[in-house]
Write a structure and sequence with these properties.
Length: about 250
């Protein structure tokens, strides 16, 4: 079984693609296959990973043109076509090299971020937007005697957004991000909304942080973000609710 892998390093005019023959074994993940390549075939291949359990968010990459976690994507179902995700076309995932999806897996870096080397991208822009929305809990009472109690219904609402692992798969899959690099992006906006609806928060003006053209208003409600999110976070829902609330106040 072949892996067709994007290769780039500083100084190259254009990226190249290398094909590697990997041993096919039950349960093998894309990350497992990349580690096989690194250990046995080419130790210069660069990619990021840490937890290997879909928790740290560092192994997101473009797998058969879909942003996904390498540690959670198994090769067998991928070759059988069982993991197909249909996405709205977007710049960044357009056709690059031909590949036979039944026999090989195409591995590329996440779109919309500069490539540092091979599958490693520069995440600075993604985290700049994340910090822009001030992802810091601002409680109303500083030192409660006991824990801050919450209504279970409120906890449920928050939980839709708290599971984000900042993998940037949504950022890489967003057609708007491809056309407007200033757009704060799905993950940052979903996180901002999560703090806005937290009843323990003191700051009631949080929505205004993204009340700017590249904020809430830039989204085209296409939905690639939800389709690729490994944690099923619904940024579009947050964005639409934030827009409704801001419109009501205008
Ligand atoms: S919202 Fe989902 S896809 Fe986007 S960064 Fe968070 S976990 Fe990843
Ligand atoms: S290695 Fe941590 S999410 Fe894949």
């Amino acid at each position: 079984m072949k892996l067709k892998v994007y290769r780039y390093q500083e100084g190259m005019e254009y990226p190249e693609y290398d094909s590697f023959e990997v041993e096919r074994e039950p349960g093998l993940t894309v990350l497992g296959a990349l580690l096989q390549i690194q250990e046995q075939l080419d130790d210069s291949l660069s990619f990021r990973y840490s937890c290997r359990g879909a928790v740290c968010g560092t192994c997101a990459m473009l797998i058969n043109k879909v942003p996904a976690l390498a540690c959670r994507t198994q090769i067998e179902p991928l070759l059988k076509g069982d993991l197909q995700v249909s996405l709205f076309p977007y710049p960044g995932a357009e056709e690059t090299v031909p590949w036979d999806a039944k026999k090989e897996v195409l591995i590329e870096p996440l779109p919309h971020m500069a490539v540092i080397k091979d599958l490693m991208v520069d995440m600075d822009k993604f985290f700049e937007y994340y910090h822009f929305i001030q992802p810091v809990f601002k409680p109303s009472d500083i030192n409660p005697e006991k824990e801050r109690l919450m209504d279970p219904q409120d906890v449920k609402k928050l939980e839709e957004y708290t599971s984000c692992i900042l993998c940037a798969a949504c950022f890489g899959a967003c057609p708007v991000e491809g056309e407007n690099p200033e757009y704060l992006g799905p993950a940052a906006l979903a996180k901002l909304y999560r703090f806005h609806i937290d009843p323990r928060e003191e700051d009631t003006s949080r929505l205004k942080i993204a009340d700017i053209p590249p904020g809430w208003w830039a989204c085209d409600s296409i939905g690639n973000c939800l389709r690729v999110c490994p944690k099923k976070v619904p940024p579009i829902k947050a964005i639409n609710l934030a827009r409704e609330e801001l419109n009501e106040k205008k």
